[in-house]
Each structure stands twice: as C-alpha cells, then as structure tokens.
Amino acid sequence: MIIEKAEVIVTSPDRNFVTLKLTTDEGHTGLGDATLNGRELAVATYLSEHIVPLLVGSDASRIEDTWQFLYRSSYWRRGPVTMASIAAVDMALWDIKGKAAGMPLYQLLGGASRRGLTAYGHASGKELPELFDSVREHLDEGYRAIRIQSGVPGLKAIYGIASQSADTFGGEARYDHEPARRGEKPVEEDWDTRAYLKHLPGVFEAVRNEFGPDIPLLHDGHHRMTPIQAAKLGKSLEPYDLFWLEDCTPAENQEALKLVRQHTTTPLAIGEIFNTVWDFKDLIRDQLIDYVRGAVTHMGGVTPLKKTMDYAALYQVKSGFHGPTDISPVGMAAQMHVGLAIHNFGMQEYMRHGAKTDEVFRQSFTWTDGLLHPGDQPGLGVELDQDEAGKYPYERAYLPYNRLADGTVHDW
Ligand code: KDG
Ligand code: MG
Asked: Does the reported pTM lie above 0.90?
C-alpha cells in the first residue's frame, strides 16, 4: 500500500485548521490534524516543504517505522511545529489502516474499554449570574462535568471568558470557536494574580451552593501562577472538591509542581503544550500530576499518545486530553478513539466546533448523556469536504496576551 499523494489543506471556516490528506495507490485516503493555534502556516510549510516529499512513494502500512523515521532522521527533534506535522502523518496512516481493515481505530487499539467518554464543557462568565447561566446551558446540552472560568473584579478582559469575547468582538466571535482572534495583531488583556487568588474561591463556593456537591468541576489556571501561588490556590479550592486544577504553573518548570503537591490534595492536570512523552516522563514517575493534558495533535499522533498513556497507567495517572476548538474534528476523533480504548481514561475536554467547521469536516461521533463516542466508521470516521474547505481561505489570527498593571508582559 503505497502513498501516492499527500496534500496539505489550510481552511478557516470558524477558525484556521491545517489538515494532511494522504491517498494510497489502493484508493484509500487518510486525514491528519496539524493545527497549531496561531502558528498554522509554520506547520503547513513544514509539512509541504519537508515531510510531503518524504512520504510520496513510501509504504502506508508502516506506521511505527514512519513515525520513528520522521522523528529520528530529521535530527532536530521535538517542538510544536515538528510534532504537529508528525502527528498529522501518524493520524492519517491510522485512518488508512482502519479503512483498509474495515474497522474503527479504537478496535485496532484493542477495542472499547467503556461505553463512551465523559466530557467537560467550558462554562464562563464575567459575573456570577452569567456564569450560572452558562453552567445551566452546559447542563442542558448534556454536559455532566464543567470547567469554571470567571471574571475578576478590576480586570477588563481575561482569556477564556465567552461573554467578554462576544462584547469585545461585537457579539460575533465566540470564545469557544475563536480563541485565536483573527486580526493583524494580538489582543492585549490584563492580569493581576493577587486579585484572582482572592476572588476565585468565592466563585467556586457560589457554584457549589447553586449546583450542589456532585457535579465534577474543573478550572484552568493557564500557567499564570508562581509555585507558591498555585499551592495557595490548590489549598483554598480543596473545600470545593475540584476534579482537576489545570496548568497551575508554567509547564516548562516541572520542579514547581513538587512544591504545589506538598501543599494541596487538589488533583493536578498539565501538558496541553507538551510535545512528547519525555515532557511527561518525570512528572508521571514522580506522581506530580494526576491527568495527562496532551493532545494527539501536539504530541506526535496516536502512536506516541497511546504509549504515553500506557506508561502513565503504571502510576495510576489518567488521561485528560486537550480538546479546545483548535484541535480539529480530525484530531478530536483520533483522541476519542484512543480514550475509548485505553484503560486509564480520565476525562475528555469537549468544546463544540462552529457550524461551518462541521460542514467542512463531516463527522460520525455521537454525544449522548454526557458521553462522547467516536462512532463505528472505519478509520477515524471523519471526511473532509474539500469544496467546502476551499470556500474559507486562511485568515491571520493570534492568541491574546497579558500585561500586568505596570506594563510587564505576563503568562496568559
Ligand atoms: O491554543 C490555545 C488553546 O488551545 C488553549 O488556551 C485552550 O487552555 C486551553 C484549554 O484548556 O482548552
Ligand atoms: Mg488549558
């Protein structure tokens, strides 16, 4: 089974996506997601200039060997651009293998370990009434676990708050569809960690009082705290029984989590910007995290994500795969198959894509009673409508960034 054609497709229905499409001499096609939010063209170029020439003429059935070849032979390893590109190849080859075998990917990975994947949605609001409305909307949409993000008194704009995004962008941009905002320059937001630490426990207390003790609640600290601030937050949120506190400190300083762990039993999730199992190795071995936040698209594909989770299983660390809208429907499908197959599944993040995105990517997953299921189509279960994709050319977009009151750039 020889790869005859490799196409890199950039489309921007509700936001930018980069997709690799492989076609074999036997007529099978495979899709892979290579979207890197705000840096899409860097990956598209890496794919078309460096990877596509290596793929055409090679054996589509050799998934492990292709992965090792692309990872090791290039010498310059790792990093989000390289690993998103390798991920797209890996996903596309698994898609082809599934189609050739007539089986959904999860069957090739060992079959289903559960009926479906518990998924959490993103509730947010500048003030409590808006936040409560957003929680209710998510419950009505079937979510059984909810991430809580709130405005902070005195701060104008915080990443992750949907209503603020709608106000700022004339009611059109929704945070969930468009975290990387289209435009020539990134949007500047403001930040104050002391104000945030003072405010957030009260928000969780109010949410628990309103919605009761049972619903799993999550929160994303988005790398904004120092280790001792993160420890303080984890401790102050303990009465509200979080399912996880995500990215409490910047991910590159792994030592920081030792200090956080010494002070709090709030479960920790980290790794949405990690690229390989090496980024997770010490954190898992030293039991410094409870959930692996890697995404199939940024971790090099299905092959290394499955290996990472098998390693994590030795330490009772579970999955919490990153699932914002910048993971395309192709990437979401791939990690749903992995999540269904592994034993140590924890929780899947699920932000809905926009209507135009769903037209471009025809999907076969289901969302029933709070559970996602990738469906039983052979391969990943996603097809790309290239005519639809062609209607939406790339649009420049940047993620926002933060400055403190005195003008210092801060983690956002
Ligand atoms: O591209 C950046 C987003 O994917 C990220 O900020 C979303 O933090 C995020 C999350 O947890 O979904
Ligand atoms: Mg996050």
From this structure: yes
